[in-house]
UniProtKB/TrEMBL annotation:
SUPFAM superfamilies with a match to the protein in the record: Actin-like ATPase domain
Identification of the protein by name: Acetophenone carboxylase gamma subunit
Residue stretches making up the Hydantoinase A/oxoprolinase domain: 179-457
One BP term from GO: glutathione metabolic process
Organism, as annotated: Pelotomaculum schinkii
Enzyme Commission (EC) number: 6.4.1.8
InterPro entries listed in its UniProt record: ATPase_NBD, Hydant_A_N, Hydantoinase_A, Oxoprolinase-like
Pfam hit, one: Hydantoinase_A
GO cellular component: cytosol
GO molecular function: 5-oxoprolinase (ATP-hydrolyzing) activity; ligase activity
Domain of life: Bacteria
Enzyme class: ligase
Keywords: Ligase
The keyword Ligase is annotated on this UniProt entry: yes
Length: 558
């Protein structure tokens, strides 16, 4: 038996899955006491079930996404060591930033040392600004970590209570600007994510659940809980990934469709082509800046069933924030859910309070008139974002291949609606886009379904230096010898495939070499005196992502 739990900003959903059938599903409001919400959802689906029968439990969450979207985190300062090259004016990271002297070259050699007096002066400035979280990022730190480690030591000596995040640990790839953003977001979210993980651990302990516990990543793969604590930013689009996998499991094989997950706080958009979620080739883009986080090509739009509505003059404005449940459910302000209730498109909440919410917005012609206006605003807003998202999806390599196979320029013509707000909105969104709509069974808990059916994934990274004659398997901590300076990427991949398949077997996974996915590959030729002296090879492979199976009929919706 598997359990999937999705901790959203509005509801915490859970499903109990056995042999591709949903045995139970549940929704619990995500209140201030998140532990109670998690326990309530788990208790509902585990009613009468021995926890000892559980094989694994997978959590997804929009907590990190919402935290960043609403900027609900402590300020973070940046200490950058970019060395020579791109003008410093290029680096605009929208936070307090100091550039420090020091250079590690592409080969990983120190060519200019740090100036410790300069570091001390920068720390004093940061302290004066009131920061207590600092990121330290060097351009070639994945090749030589000494500058970052020395800076971290200097920070801790002077300010022991500060939190310091190191670039080479947050993002192991060379792209410097993306590593800076990734490290910044890691520092911003680490404390909150650690708190979330502690709540999860406490809930499992209280219910005596000893099954394997995993966290869903932004690319639809999974992480063991202890590993996710080190890289919280990997879960930034965990919620949208869950709804995508859920829609995949709840629809026909080979489906091509836009996925619209309409929740209380946001609407998450994704695309599946011939039954495969579209992956972003560039990584997660947060507030216009790219990161090193591998993700599905998704977007979170700040429009949901509980979005705040306000009348300004003759216009109704939808604000991209949530102040609580809908007015008809006891909330403080009118929301789109109130409009749905007035029009009879949902049974949530109290009809009279929904009509009262419309009256607050000052419509003289009756609550149904203004409710229709509100729904049109929501539908226009989400449809517009889907059209904008298509401009990004159409640039993805996988989309171009799909389009070539269609032999004509065409867009997917189906919108799959999931999430609590899908009913009443998705049909209208599909009509606006000229598409057909599908709302599958269990749409309201599709995120939890996606978490439950997500395949367990494992990854292994190799870093080889042919001149030094050695390689390192990072996750295993194993260092091996390279016998030949002709060692190449194919040989590195052979080592990785063999070791990862053995690792997968130890976890009970049957994986074939051809199923392994190369998630990162980078090669540097080391040239001196006009001759290639060696190569630096960095490769990461992962067991296949995807779903364990499609949901069959059976069970009861909660």
């Amino acid at each position: 038996m598997y359990i999937g739990v999705d901790v959203g900003g509005t509801y915490t959903d859970a499903v109990l899955l056995e042999k591709n059938q949903i045995k139970a599903s549940a929704k619990a409001p995500s209140g201030k006491n998140l532990l109670s919400s998690i326990l309530e959802a788990i208790d509902k689906v585990l009613q009468g079930v021995d926890p000892g029968r559980l094989k694994r439990i997978v959590f997804s969450t929009t907590m990190i996404t919402n935290l960043i979207a609403e900027r609900k985190y402590d300020p973070v300062a940046l200490l950058l060591i970019p060395g020579p090259g791109l003008s410093y004016t290029y680096y605009q990271f929208n936070t307090f930033t100091r550039i420090l002297t020091g250079t590690i070259d592409y080969r990983g050699r120190e060519t200019v040392s740090l100036k410790e007096r300069e570091v001390e002066a920068a720390l004093d400035e940061i302290a004066d600004q009131g920061f207590k979280k600092v990121c330290v990022i060097g351009k070639f730190s994945p090749r030589n970590t000494s500058h970052e480690k020395r800076l971290a030591m200097l920070v801790k000596e002077k300010y022991p209570d500060w939190e310091v995040e190191l670039g080479h640990l947050a993002g192991g790839q060379l792209n410097f600007p993306r590593r800076v953003v990734t490290t910044y977001l890691t520092a911003a979210t680490r404390e909150s994510f650690h708190h979330f993980l502690n709540l999860v651990r406490q809930s499992l302990a209280e219910r005596q659940i000893t099954a394997e516990a995993l966290i869903l990543k932004a690319d639809g793969g999974t992480l063991p809980m202890e590993n996710s604590d080190k890289i919280p930013v990997e879960t930034i689009f965990s919620g949208p990934a869950a709804s995508t996998l859920g829609a995949l499991a709840l629809t026909s094989p080979g489906e091509t469709a836009v996925i619209a997950d309409i929740g209380g706080t946001t609407t998450d958009l994704a695309l599946i082509l011939n039954g495969q979620p579209l992956l972003s080739a560039k990584g997660a883009r947060i507030e216009g800046q790219l990161t090193q986080v591998r993700t599905l090509a998704v977007k979170s739009v700040p429009i949901g069933g509980d979005s705040v509505l306000e009348r300004m003059g003759n216009e109704i404005i939808i604000h991209g924030k949530r102040m609580g449940p809908a007015y008809c459910m006891g909330g403080p302000v009118p929301t789109p859910t109130d409009a749905l209730r007035v029009l009879g498109l949902t049974t949530l909440g109290d009809q009279n309070r929904a009509a009262e919410a419309m009256a607050i917005l000052g419509e003289r012609n009756g609550s149904r008139v203004i409710a229709e206006k509100i729904l049109n605003l929501v539908v226009d807003g989400i449809s517009s974002q889907i059209n904008k998202m298509f401009q990004e999806w159409e640039l993805e390599p996988a989309y171009r291949v799909w389009e070539i196979l269609q032999k004509r320029k065409v867009r997917p013509s189906t919108v799959v609606g999931v999430g609590g707000g899908a009913n009443g909105l998705v049909d209208r969104i599909a009509e606006k886009l000229g598409c057909r709509s599908i709302i599958p069974p269990y749409a309201a808990v599709a995120n939890a379904v996606g978490a439950a059916v997500a395949k367990t994934t494992l990854q292994l990274s190799l870093r080889a230096d042919t001149e030094r004659g050695s390689y390192l398997l990072q996750e295993e901590g194993f260092e091996g010898k390279i016998d030949s300076k002709q060692f190449n990427e194919k040989q590195a991949l052979d080592i990785l495939r063999e070791r990862l398949i053995r690792m997968a077997a130890r976890h009970g996974l049957d994986v074939k070499p051809e199923q392994l996915e190369v998630t990162h590959q980078e090669v540097f030729n080391m040239v001196r005196d006009w001759q290639t002296k060696g190569r630096l090879i960095d490769i990461t492979v992962q067991t296949p992502r995807g779903i364990t199976g499609r949901i069959e009929a059976g069970g009861q919706e909660g």
